[in-house]
Specification:
The complex is a heterodimer of chains A (211) and B (386). Chain A has 211 residues and is of the alpha/beta class. Chain A is 59% helix and 10% strand. The radius of gyration of chain A is 17 Å and the shape is globular. Chain B is built from 16 helices and 14 strands. In chain B, the strands form 4 sheets. A 7-stranded parallel beta sheet of chain B has the order 1-7-8-11-12-13-14. Chain B has a 3-stranded antiparallel beta sheet with strand order 3-4-5, with no helix packed on it. In chain B, a hairpin with a 2-residue loop joins strand 9 and strand 10. The chains are: A alpha/beta (211), B alpha/beta (386). At the A-B interface, helix 4, helix 8 and helix 9 of A face strand 4, strand 5, helix 8 and strand 10 of B.
Chain lengths: 211, 386
């Protein structure tokens, strides 16, 4: 459908005002929020993800697209009468680990994941392991997403995983990790469930882990 | 230097290797390398966080930082520039302190209670973040002035190292010559990225304030050092782990002219230019060369496309390199053998024809074991000789 295609394009290019008006209009035409998420927001984010992979889009473009996706989702939320979308995809608790206050990458990931239809609880920066555990329990989250920028602070990820085990809830939650000093090796080393190098990949990973 | 047997034994290997390799002064060696000539061995530069510096001094029995650098065979000496004599930096009740640009920073501790505990100064408040117009930004009262510095001692500071060592005008980490980084501090990182995507006038306005400052400040520094500095270092992170943060077109549009000006000014004083950027900047390297860069610093091996072998092959005729030692995986998580292998790889590939200085791709971080730090410096001397 033409309108949804246009919406995808607005999201992809971060045109948030146009995207929000169009989403409103599509709702008025009785297009379901689920369809709008799938064929508008997600299609836009996926197209951007592909351009990002090919070095045709960079961080500024991710930033404005993630913001547009998130704002369109806000427009849709009141209309999601058949159960909020997060029931479909899952709840993600996300934060930057203890000792680290860098949140740009984490914020982009949070925006893109939320724009992609997850409920996201963002705990901010310098989050101690005990707080992650408390919030995971409280929100009955499916996924815990941990971010770090410095190599010394990434060890706090390990500490958080250990506390999940001590608390006996490691098996009931998937843990994904990301940030500049993180790679698949480090992810395996600390026993996390998945690593994503960037926001589009993080959304795909969250979808895989939630299933 | 402590002369107990324990320390002497620990210093033995490096001393032996140095005696075997070294036939020239640190400065001669490094000048050769930056001019694409082979010296007696690959020169060494050293970047480490204070926590590691302290551990190194304790381990090798060095009583001062200078003793440590001299023992390790570090050839480059850093000069941090003139002394700040402007108004006292404001302290706030929330514990934050304003810097040169009026950006407020706070101390953040990481690894609390562990062996790798340390601190970083982090941005806590960006003064331009909530401004919406060019007029507001122009009327910001915190723009710094080159008059806030006392340039009178910088020459004697540098002359104390010359002529034996190679002197690098490095500037303070937080005030280093740059464009994008001060913009991020002043405006907030996220807002800067959004501006880059949709507010070109604001980007240009902040950039002009930043560039104009350094274009006035740097010639005064270079004039004041009176030939006692060999190289000027600027630093501006434009690379991410898997590619540049911004497109080449965007870099050209906003940052090329400033980059070129910074290089031209240094060259007009006879200085070479080193540029630090983290991350993968492979796509931008031809532009860096075209706009005057002499030496690229960091070569972060874990970033995509920054393999020293490839960079040397593709750009080594026009560009020299410093860095390439991995602080993200090998040094903190690898074994001593992995560290040695990494040093040998860089030496084998970057040694021919000079143009390379050994260094870590950023400061050795507090999560690195002494065993690996020892392996690193021993390997520099083991594999660096010609």
């Amino acid at each position: 459908m033409e309108g949804l295609k246009k919406l995808a394009e607005y999201v992809e290019y971060g045109k948030r005002q146009e995207a929000k008006s169009l989403a409103q209009k599509l709702l008025g035409e009785n297009i379901s929020p689920d369809t709008i998420v799938k064929e508008g927001i997600m299609a836009g984010l996926n197209a951007l993800g592909e351009r990002f992979e090919k070095f045709e889009a960079f961080v500024p473009e991710l930033m404005v697209a993630g913001r547009a996706a998130k704002e369109v989702l806000e427009v849709l939320k009141p209309k999601m009468t058949q159960g909020p979308l997060h029931k479909i995809k899952g709840t993600v608790v996300i934060g930057t680990v203890e000792g680290d206050v860098h949140d740009v990458g984490k914020n982009i990931v949070a925006m893109v994941i939320e724009g992609g239809g997850f409920k996201v609880i963002d705990l901010g920066v310098d989050v101690p392991p005990s707080k992650f555990i408390k919030e995971v329990k409280y929100h009955e989250a499916n996924i815990l997403a941990l971010s770090a920028l410095y190599t010394p602070t990434r060890l706090a990820m390990k500490g958080t995983l250990e506390l999940l085990r001590t608390e006996g809830i490691r098996d009931s939650i998937k843990v994904m990790v990301g940030g500049a000093p993180i790679d698949q090796n480090f992810c395996d080393l600390i026993g996390a469930d998945g690593y994503a190098p960037d926001a589009p990949a993080a959304l795909k990973l969250a979808e895989r882990l939630a299933n | 230097m402590k002369e107990d047997k324990l320390y002497k034994d620990r210093r033995y290997k490096i001393n032996e290797l140095r005696a075997k390799n070294e036939k020239m002064t640190a400065r001669e060696r490094t000048l050769k390398a930056i001019n694409f000539e082979e010296a007696d061995r690959i020169p060494i530069d050293n970047w480490m966080v204070p926590e590691i510096k302290k551990r190194c001094q304790e381990y090798w029995g060095c009583e001062t930082d200078n003793e440590l650098l001299a023992f390790l065979g570090v050839d480059v000496r850093d000069n941090y520039g003139p002394s700040y004599v402007g108004q006292e930096f404001k302290k706030f009740d929330d514990g934050t302190v304003a810097d040169l640009w009026g950006v407020r920073r706070k101390i953040v501790t990481y690894g609390k209670g562990t062996s790798y505990e340390g601190i970083f100064k982090e941005v806590a408040w960006s003064p331009l973040e909530h401004m919406n117009t060019v007029e507001e930004i122009n009327s910001y009262d915190g723009w710094p002035s080159p008059d806030w510095w006392d340039y009178s001692k910088v020459k004697s500071d540098c002359a104390a190292w010359h002529p034996e060592y190679f002197v690098l005008n490095k500037g303070d980490r937080l005030d280093r010559t740059a464009q994008l980084k001060p913009m991020m501090y002043l405006r907030g990182i996220e807002q800067t990225f959004i501006d880059l995507a949709e507010n070109p006038k604001i980007v240009e306005c902040i950039r002009d304030h930043v560039v104009n400052y350094f274009v006035e400040y740097n010639p005064r520094v270079f004039e004041a050092v009176g030939g006692e500095v060999d190289m000027f270092m600027m630093g501006d992170d434009v690379g991410g782990q898997r590619g540049p943060l911004i497109s080449r077109e965007m870099w050209r549009r906003y940052f090329r002219d400033g980059f070129r000006k910074y290089c031209d000014i240094a060259h007009s004083f006879g200085l070479k230019v080193m540029y630090h950027t983290c991350g993968d900047v492979y796509q931008l390297i031809p532009d860096f060369i075209d706009n005057g860069l002499d030496m690229l610093q960091s070569l972060q091996p874990r970033a995509t496309n920054m393999d020293i072998k490839r960079l040397k092959q593709e750009f080594g005729k026009h560009l020299s390199f410093q860095g390439a030692m991995d602080i993200q995986q090998v040094l903190p998580l690898g074994r001593a053998e992995d560290v040695k292998k990494m040093v040998k790889y860089a030496a084998d590939n970057a040694k021919p024809g000079g143009g390379y200085i050994f260094c870590t791709s950023h400061n050795i971080q507090a999560d690195t074991s002494m065993e690996n730090v020892v392996a690193l410096f021993e390997a520099y001397h083991e594999y660096g000789g010609y």
